């Protein structure tokens, strides 16, 4: 099988990190997400994923995060048979295949053109599925999408790499285009940003990845636009989902849950408009 060479820098590297962590989860005897595509996609890419081994514990957080967002997306689609899905900053994720939207529900994966060019070589064509190569902060790509249906917008590992003004613009562009919908996304607190920025040898620092928007509470995103309304939140350290994680990770999560400053360091959020 011919492999695809990868030479990413900057924020594009996060697509590879997320893929690697989903792959680790898929290799676990008790996967949280169990992405059936992760292994074959990793094998198609000519890239040395071993450099990401220091981030291996992240497989649990990414597994939980992706699973919760899949569940929220399925729930929305079950209630909206004509819905549109936007997966922003999709990277090399197979979410459309995991969620498996029904006929009549159209799914759009959006990421940088060079990321989408590779993604199109990794997955088969699927009816109702369209990939768009564009920066999510641009507005022009939305013109290709019908704006008369409810939408669910998935942003898994995206917003923390945009600054607040860019995040606000993304929300506003989408709310201006669609009549109603939901946003599901994850975001960290300033303490998480500071922790990464204080580690010059981290994978992110090595590849020039910079962090942007943070929040300190689950409802803080409501400040971005008065059309945004908080619905609910989930945690990446939910006991039921990490019950088969390593003992070390479960003990670490228990410690995090006991310290308020750490407990609120990251959020899985659902908003409506």
CATH superfamily: Vaccinia Virus protein VP39
So, CATH architecture? 3-Layer(aba) Sandwich
Average pLDDT value?
93
The CA-CA distance between the termini, in Å, is: 45 Å
> Structural class, from helix and strand content?
alpha/beta
Order of neighbouring strands in the sheet with most strands = 5-4-3-6-7-9-8
How many strand elements? Answer: 9
- Major sheet details: 7 strands, mixed
Strand content: 15-25%
Instruction: Bin the helical content.
Output: 25-40%
Tertiary shape? globular
- Rg (CA only): 18 Å
Low-confidence stretches: none
Query: What fold name stands as the CATH topology?
Result: Rossmann fold
CATH class membership: Alpha Beta
Number of helical segments with 4 or more residues = 10
The run of helices and strands is: EHHEHEHEHEEHEHHEHHE
Count of folded domains = 1
């Amino acid at each position: 099988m011919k492999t695809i060479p990868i030479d990413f820098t900057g924020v594009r590297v996060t697509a590879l990190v997320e893929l690697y962590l989903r792959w680790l989860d898929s290799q676990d005897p008790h996967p949280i997400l169990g992405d059936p595509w992760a292994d074959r996609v990793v094998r198609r890419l000519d890239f040395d994923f071993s450099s990401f081994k220091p981030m291996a514990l992240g497989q649990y957080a990414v597994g939980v995060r992706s699973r919760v967002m899949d569940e929220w997306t399925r729930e929305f689609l079950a209630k909206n048979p004509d819905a549109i899905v936007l997966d922003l900053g999709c990277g090399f994720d197979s979410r459309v295949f995991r969620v498996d939207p029904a006929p009549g529900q159209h799914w759009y994966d959006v990421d940088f053109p060079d990321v989408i060019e590779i993604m199109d070589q990794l997955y088969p064509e699927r009816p109702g599925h369209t990939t768009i190569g564009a920066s999510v902060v641009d507005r022009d790509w939305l013109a290709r999408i019908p704006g008369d249906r409810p939408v669910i917008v998935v942003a898994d590992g995206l917003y923390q790499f945009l600054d607040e003004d860019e995040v606000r613009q993304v929300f506003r562009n989408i709310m201006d285009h669609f009549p109603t919908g939901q946003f599901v996304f994850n975001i960290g607190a300033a303490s998480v940003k500071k922790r990464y920025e204080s580690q010059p040898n981290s994978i992110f620092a090595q590849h020039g990845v910079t962090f942007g928007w943070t929040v300190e509470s689950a409802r803080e995103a409501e400040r971005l636009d008065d059309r945004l309304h908080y619905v609910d939140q989930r945690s990446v350290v939910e006991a039921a989902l990490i019950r088969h994680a390593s003992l070390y990770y479960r003990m670490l999560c228990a410690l995090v849950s006991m310290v308020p400053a750490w407990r609120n360091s990251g959020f899985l959020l659902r908003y409506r408009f």
